[in-house]
Specification:
mainly alpha; about 90 residues; about 85% helix; 3 helices
Length: about 90
């Protein structure tokens, strides 16, 4: 297998990973920042206050994004297995 092909495979794998994890990470970041701002404004200094809203948000985003995530992962796997003979050389 050539070096360019290995680099392309690694790039595609990282891209798929970021696309799959991105929506949940962004939603968690937004909720975390929002609750942190709320804590600063109200002077509540509880570190565990952001935990439950983040979990609920990530779960809800995952439920809504699941069809899209599966489409991305299935198309990546199909491309990977479709070109398997190319990788064996």
């Amino acid at each position: 297998m050539e070096q360019a092909m290995v680099i392309k495979l690694a790039k595609d794998a990282l891209q798929v990973t970021l696309m799959v994890a991105g929506p949940m990470l962004v939603a968690s970041l937004i909720i975390g920042i929002t609750i942190s701002i709320l804590q600063v404004v109200t002077s509540i200094q509880d570190m565990t206050l952001t935990f439950i809203p983040k979990i609920i948000t990530v779960f809800v985003v995952f439920l809504f994004a699941f069809p899209w995530i599966m489409h991305i992962m299935i198309s990546y796997a199909a491309r990977l297995f479709g070109n398997l003979e190319t990788f064996a050389r």
